[in-house]
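Anyone else keep sequences and C-alpha cells together like this?

Example one:
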Amino acid sequence: MRAVARGQVLLQASSAGQLLAVLRSQERPVYESSLDALASSEVELLGWTEREPEVVRLIAQGHSNTEIAAELVVSDATVKTHINHIYSKFGARDRSQVIVKARQLGLA
C-alpha cells in the first residue's frame, strides 16, 4: 500500500513479463505509435493536452510520478495535475484503469 501511495505500480511477475514482451515486440517506440493511433477526432473529443499522451505512455510503462516528472522535466505537482486530468477524461480511479483504457485507444 505504501508503494502505491508513492505512485509506484505493482504487478505480478507474470503480468510484468507479459507487459514487457508486448512493449519489446513493437516495431516503433510506444510514443510514436500512440500519436499515430490517437486520431485527431479523439484528441478533440477527450480534450487532450500535448503532454497527456506522453504521461499515459509513461504510466503504461510503469513509471512513478517522480520518474515521469524527471523524464518530462516538470515538477511532481505538474505530473499529478496531468494524471488527475487523465483520470477524469478516462473516467478512471487508478493507474490500472488508465492502462486498460490506453490499450483500448492504442496509446499503450
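And example two:
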Amino acid sequence: MTVLVTGSSGHLGEALVRTLQAQRRETVGIDVLSGAFTHHVGSITDRAFVRRCMRDVTTVLHTATLHKPHVATHSRQDFVDVNITGTLNLLEEAAAAGVTAFVYTSTTSVFGDALVPPPGAPAAWITEDVAAVPKNIYGVTKAAAEDLCQLFARNHSLRAIVLRTSRFFPEEDDNHTVREAYTDANIKINEFLYRRVDIEDVVSAHLLAAQHATAAGFVKYIISATTPFSRHDAAELRNDAPDVVRRYVPDFEVEFARRGWTMIPGIDRVYVNDRARTELGWQPRHNFRALIARLRAGEDIRSPLAREVGSKGYHDRVFHDGPYPVE
C-alpha cells in the first residue's frame, strides 16, 4: 500500500510526504531536486525512472509541475515536457502497474480569462461547471493534463481525481502594484475570502480524494477556502467588497485597524468549494472568519503544517523586481 508523491521537494509535495509519514504510511517521494522528503531524484519526463518508482505503488499523488512563475523563465516546450509528457508517463506507468487511485494537482489558473468578468459585470462565481479558458502555457498544459487523466479514467479504468487548487504559496504576490498597496499578510488574508487556501486543507483534500478515487468516476474539484459569500453577493462584491465583508464578518474591521490593514475595494471572482465538501466530505478548517478569530487571539494565521514547510521559492536566483518575473 505505497503512496507515490511526485514533486516531494516542493511545497505541496513535502507537505504530503510529511503528513503521510506522520500517519506511518509507506511513502515514496520523487523530485528533480534532492530534499529531506525525496527518496529518488529524477524527472517525471524520464519514462524509465517513472517505471522504476512505480513498483508496488497503489496510490499516486501527482503534484510535480512547472508553475505559473516559471512562464517567463522556461520555454513552452519545457511546460509541455513536464506538465503534459510527464503526466502521461505517470498515467501510463500507473495503469500498467495496477495503481488504484491517481490524484492530479491542477490549478484554478486553468479557468484563465473566465476569472475576469467584463467591466460592470458581477464577480465571477467559479464552480466546476465554469468552462476553462487558459490564458498562458501554464494553464494550457495543466488543462491538457487534466484531459489525459480523464482519458485514462475512461479508457484504462485508472481511478483519477483532479483537484483544482487555489493559491496556497507563501511567497510574495507577483503584482508590483499589489505589493506596494498592501503588506504581504494583508494580501493573503484578503485572498482567503475568495481565492486562497491553507496547505493543511490542500493536503486533507488530496488524502480524501485518494480514498474516494477507487469508488468514483473521473471528477474535478475546486479546492479553496470556504467563502462567506453567496452568489447573490456577486454584483455588490465587484464594487463594494468591504461592505459585503462587513455583513458577514463584522469584527474584521477592528483587527484590520489594529494592524493598519485595508480590505480590497472589489472582488472579481469567487472560488466555490461546495462540491468537494459535499462529495468528498472535505472539511477545510482555514477560512477568513477563522483567521480573524486567530488574529483576535494573537495567534499565527498559518496552520502548523504551513509553518513547518515554509517557503520554497520557484527559482534559484533573485530578480530585480519581485519574487519572480512575469510575462
